Amino acid sequence: MFLEIKDLNFNYPDKEIFRSFDLHAPAGKIIHINGPSGAGKTTLLHLIAGIQSPQSGAITLGEKVFFNNEQKLLIEERRVGLVFQDYALFPHLNVINNISFGNKNISEEKTNKTLHQLDIYRLRNKFPEEISGGQQQRVAIARTILHQPHILMCDEPFSALDSKVLENTKDFIKSYVVKNQIPCLVVSHNNEAIGNNFFDDVIVID
Length: 206
What we know:
This protein is of the alpha/beta class. The chain has helices spanning 41-49, 95-100, 108-117, 133-146, 163-180, 191-194; strands at 3-12, 15-25, 30-34, 56-61, 64-67, 80-83, 151-155, 184-187, 201-204. A hairpin with a 2-residue loop joins strand 1 (3-12) and strand 2 (15-25).
């Protein structure tokens, strides 16, 4: 399953972001989305997820049309996993309930295994305000992946992680992407700490 974007056009009222933009993201590969602040990196993820809509162009994932000039697929029908830059955890829910929110079919065994892999199992009954930014970031990653998306997109997923947990989190994401043969887009400015061996390709948006 691969992501294909063709002739994408999008602009805000006061600024053009994409003009005839093309992108190909193969299955099982992690693509680094790079570029200066304000270039449209986060906007690109939102357009793919359906949070925002382009003026024209086409976005497809395998045989599924997300958007073209004739139709737009609803967000909930896209099976997109998006790790938000601000984590987007519900403050009134503990870690376990944040992860299971919207998907009651996640097994307890699979959830616990994922929490152990990301070294956050001990936090399962804590609320977001009781854990650090890096721990919240890993909860957001766990929640997204446990929903078994057909494409994974991460907006600055390592920004709050120290070197001790960074490698483990990178391995966790890469293992999921390769095993399930889905495309993955990662927006990140922390390139030196992440290392080139994590990414399979880079797309520069300027």
